[in-house]
Amino acid sequence: MQTEVIVVAAGSGTRMGSAMKKQYLPLDGAPILVRTLQTLAACPTVHRIVLVVASEDVPYITELIEAYYLSKIGDVVAGGRERQDSVRNGIAALLHDTEFVAVHDAARPLVTPEEVEAVLTAAKMFGAATLGVKVKDTIKRVDQGQVRETLQRSDLWAVHTPQAFRCEWLAEAHMRAWEAGYTGTDDASLVEWAGYPVSMVEGLYSNLKVTTPEDLVIAEALWRARKE
Ligand code: CTP
Ligand code: MG
Asked: 128 lies in which domain range?
C-alpha cells in the first residue's frame, strides 16, 4: 500500500513576526522544517514525501536537502496563497498509484513516528483520520466582546496534523471545495464537508504547532527533554 505525506511549508509565518520564516528557524540547532522531515522519513510506512514550499525558497530547500541528507523527498512543489491552495498543489504531485496520503504542517516538528503511524493506521481502517487532543481549557463562543455560549468541554478536541486519508477522498474533497469556493482551516474539514467520516486519533499535547514566539520556547524545551 503506497503512502505519501504532503508537508506544507509555504506559509509566511506572520504571527511569529520573525525576520526568517518560522519553518526555517532553528530547533535545537537545525531548521524546524528539517526536524519535521527527518521524523516523517523515519516512519516505516511512509514511502514518499511531497514538500510544498514558497517558490522563492526552492534553492534554499535544495541546499537543505543536501546538507542534511534528507530522504524520501520525491517532489518539491510551489505553494499557494492559502494553506488549502498549498495542499491542493501537493495533491497534484502525488503518484498515481498512491492509496493513502497524510498532510502535515512543517510547523509541527515535535510529531513522533508513533503518532504518524497511528493516524495512518486509522485512515487505512476507516478512510480518514486526524490526530487531536482533548482541550484542557473551557471554550466559550464570544461575539462583540460578549460571551454567547459555553461549549461542553468533554466533546471538544483540538486538532493537530498529520491528518490521513484515502487518496481519492482527499483529492475529491479538495477539488469540490475549490470549485464551490469552500474553505476550511484543515483538510479534515474539507473531507467532512464532502460527506466522508473522519476518525479522531488521540495524539500528544507535545505535537504543538509553532505559531507565536512562546511556542518556540516550549518546543525547544520539549525537544531537549526528549533527548535526556
Ligand atoms: N502553509 C502553506 N501555505 C500557505 C499557508 C500556510 O504551506 N499559504 C503552511 C505553513 O508553512 C505551516 C502550515 O501550513 O507549516 C500551518 O500554517 P500556519 O501555522 O498558519 O503557518 P503560516 O501561515 O506560515 O503562519 P501565519 O498564519 O502566522 O502567517
Ligand atoms: Mg497561516
From this structure: 3-227
Give Dmax over CA atoms of the chain in angstroms. 53
Task: Look up residue 174 and give its three cell numbers.
Answer: 479538495
Tens digits of pLDDT across the chain (228 residues): 899 999 999 999 999 999 999 999 999 999 999 999 999 999 999 999 999 999 999 999 999 999 999 999 999 999 999 999 999 999 999 999 999 999 999 999 999 999 999 999 999 999 999 999 999 999 999 999 999 999 999 999 999 999 999 999 999 999 999 999 999 999 999 999 999 999 999 999 999 999 999 999 999 999 999 988
Q: Which atom of ligand 1 is nearest to the CA of 211?
A: 19
Q: Which residue type occupies 173?
A: A
Query: Distance from CA of residue 14 to its chain's centroid?
Result: 17
- Alpha-carbon distance of 168 to 174, in angstroms, equals 10
* Cα–Cα distance measured from residue 163 to residue 103, given in angstroms and rounded to the nearest whole number: 5
- Does ligand 1 come within 6 angstroms of the Cβ of 17? no
Structural domain tally of the chain? 1
Q: Is 106 in the pocket of ligand 1 (CB under 6 A)?
A: yes
Q: Whose CA is nearest to atom 23 of ligand 1?
A: 11
Q: Which residues does residue 30 pair with via DSSP β-bridges, in sequence order?
A: 27
* Ligand 1 atom nearest 80 alpha carbon: 8
Q: Which amino acid is at 142?
A: V
The ipTM, to two decimals, is: 0.99
Number of H helices, E strands in the chain: 7, 11
DSSP assignment letter at 168 = H
Check which CATH number belongs to the domain holding 135 and give it.
3.90.550.10
